[in-house]
């Protein structure tokens, strides 16, 4: 039996990626796609990549059919999502929210970073955090809710927090890092990370042939990364925009504790391989190999590379993902697979284009 699902915000970049994945998924029947800007327009007229594959037509974001579905994926901006989630849940629809609205545990932290009061803070206590490799228990609870006939709310992790945390969390959880030390994150994203709308920063003439830092010391993903890593006020996060369509590389520098100074790169690789032994979407590369965005673009895989610098006593942990896939749509489908009792890889592309 196929589960009936919908995508709200399907004309946006993350929404269109959801459509790509869901149309190819054997267990989900994509029943509704919404866009207010393109209502009554055929999907293939907006994204010619879908020509000949589907006759789906956009309906409005408040299409009542959404309330009858098994699950809805929300690919709308933060603040818009929290206007929709309580209503969908009240109709028994599970929600996979790609926005930041339900990611932060503390509504005051949300208000401080998003300049908007949270309108359904109670849901923050029961939502699952959608980063399966690091929040298996949350996803198991969401699965149990589904089995019990209750709708689940999954707050899918952000793109930068996903790559950064997959790179850094094992070292922190295994106790390798010096207590209270700073965690330095330099990350690079392709321009689709900024969504479909064009700004002076993302305009071709600004973004092409240039790499620039932005949001320095004030990016809204900082508290999300700190929450996942359990490192409040210790993350220095510097995102950069690069002239790529898709792809995100996060390079994290972690100060090793004296007890971990004997660690070699090979030891670190072995320990990370063990940490991710039951996480099929994460590929830990051998010592000396470097993750690259080109290897993961179009896939839901995350490649991790590691290097220990004995001279300075740091671990450099790097993770490459496709911001639209493992960083957004693919991770949402991975979470849905788990909630609906399917193999977490079901329907997800895992091997990129070799060249
Ligand atoms: N792009 C990325 O790499 C990632 C994105 N995300 C998150 O996914 C969500 C979508 O991002 P992205 O696809 O990049 O954004 P886009 O700007 O490309 O698309 C946004 C979509 O949201 C809809 N929308 C805009 N405003 C509203 C509103 N007020 N109420 C309801 N719907 C609205 C638009 O609908 P319409 O068609 O009517 O204009 C559009 O379809 C965001 O929350 C983003 O933070 C998460 C991780 C990575
Ligand atoms: C390149 C670029 O501009 N990226 C976006 C982040 C991507 C995103 O969609 O944010 P969420 O993961 O929180 O949804 C930014 O820096 O705001």
TrEMBL record:
Q: Where primarily located?
A: cytoplasm
Q: Can you tell me which residues form the catalytic site?
A: 159
The answer to whether the entry has keyword NADP is yes
> Which SMART domains does the protein's record reference?
Semialdhyde_dh (SM00859)
Q: Pinpoint the Semialdehyde dehydrogenase NAD-binding domain residues.
A: 4-142
Pathway of this protein? Amino-acid biosynthesis; L-arginine biosynthesis; N(2)-acetyl-L-ornithine from L-glutamate: step 3/4
Report the subcellular localization. Answer: Cytoplasm
- UniProtKB keywords: Amino-acid biosynthesis, Arginine biosynthesis, Cytoplasm, NADP, Oxidoreductase
Q: Does the keyword Ion transport apply?
A: no
Report the GO terms under cellular component: cytoplasm
Q: Which SUPFAM superfamilies match?
A: Glyceraldehyde-3-phosphate dehydrogenase-like, C-terminal domain (SSF55347), NAD(P)-binding Rossmann-fold domains (SSF51735)
* Catalysis performed (reactions): N-acetyl-L-glutamate 5-semialdehyde + phosphate + NADP(+) = N-acetyl-L-glutamyl 5-phosphate + NADPH + H(+)
From its record, what is one biological process in GO terms?
A: L-arginine biosynthetic process
Report the EC code(s) recorded for this entry.
1.2.1.38
What the entry lists under InterPro entries is as follows: AGPR, AGPR_AS, AGPR_dimerisation_dom, AGPR_type-1, NAD(P)-bd_dom_sf, Semialdehyde_DH_NAD-bd
Question: Pfam families, from UniProt?
Answer: Semialdhyde_dh, Semialdhyde_dhC_1
Q: Name one GO molecular function term.
A: NADP+ binding
Q: Where is the signal peptide?
A: none
Summarize the protein's role: Catalyzes the NADPH-dependent reduction of N-acetyl-5-glutamyl phosphate to yield N-acetyl-L-glutamate 5-semialdehyde.
User: NCBIfam families annotated for this entry?
Assistant: argC (TIGR01850)
Protein name (record): N-acetyl-gamma-glutamyl-phosphate reductase
Organism for this UniProt entry: Collinsella stercoris DSM 13279
């Amino acid at each position: 039996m196929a589960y009936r699902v919908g995508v709200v915000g399907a004309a946006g970049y993350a929404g269109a990626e959801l459509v790509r994945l869901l149309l190819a998924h054997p267990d989900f029947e994509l029943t509704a796609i919404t866009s207010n800007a393109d209502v009554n327009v055929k999907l293939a007229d907006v994204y010619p990549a879908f020509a000949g594959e589907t006759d789906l037509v956009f309906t409005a974001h408040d299409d009542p059919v959404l309330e009858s579905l098994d699950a809805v994926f929300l690919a709308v901006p933060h603040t818009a999502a929290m206007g929709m989630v309580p209503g969908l849940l009240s109709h028994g629809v599970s929600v996979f929210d790609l926005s930041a609205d339900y990611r932060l545990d503390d509504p005051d932290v949300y208000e401080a970073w998003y300049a908007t009061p949270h309108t359904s803070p109670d849901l923050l206590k029961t939502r699952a955090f959608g980063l399966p490799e690091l929040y298996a228990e949350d996803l198991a609870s969401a699965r149990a809710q589904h089995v019990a006939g209750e709708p689940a709310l999954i707050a899918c992790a952000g793109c930068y927090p996903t790559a950064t945390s997959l790179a850094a969390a094992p070292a922190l959880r295994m106790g390798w890092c010096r207590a209270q030390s700073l965690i330095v994150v330099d990350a690079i994203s392709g321009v689709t990370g900024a969504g479909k709308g064009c700004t002076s920063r993302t305009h071709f003439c600004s973004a092409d042939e240039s790499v620039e830092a932005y949001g320095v010391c004030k990016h809204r993903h900082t508290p999300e990364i700190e929450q996942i890593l359990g490192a409040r006020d210790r993350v220095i996060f510097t995102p950069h925009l690069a002239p790529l369509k898709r792809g995100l590389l996060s390079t994290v520098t972690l100060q090793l504790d004296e007890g971990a100074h004997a660690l070699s790169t090979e030891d670190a690789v072995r320990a990370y391989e063990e940490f991710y032994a039951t996480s099929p979407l994460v590929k830990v590369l051998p010592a000396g190999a470097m993750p690259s965005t080109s290897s993961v673009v179009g896939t839901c895989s995350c490649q991790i590379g590691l290097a220990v610098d004995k001279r300075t006593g740091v671990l450099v942990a790097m993770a490459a993902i496709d911001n639209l896939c493992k960083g957004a749509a693919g991770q949402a489908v991975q979470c849905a697979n788990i909630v609906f009792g399917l193999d977490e890889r079901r329907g997800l592309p895992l091997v990129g284009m070799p060249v």
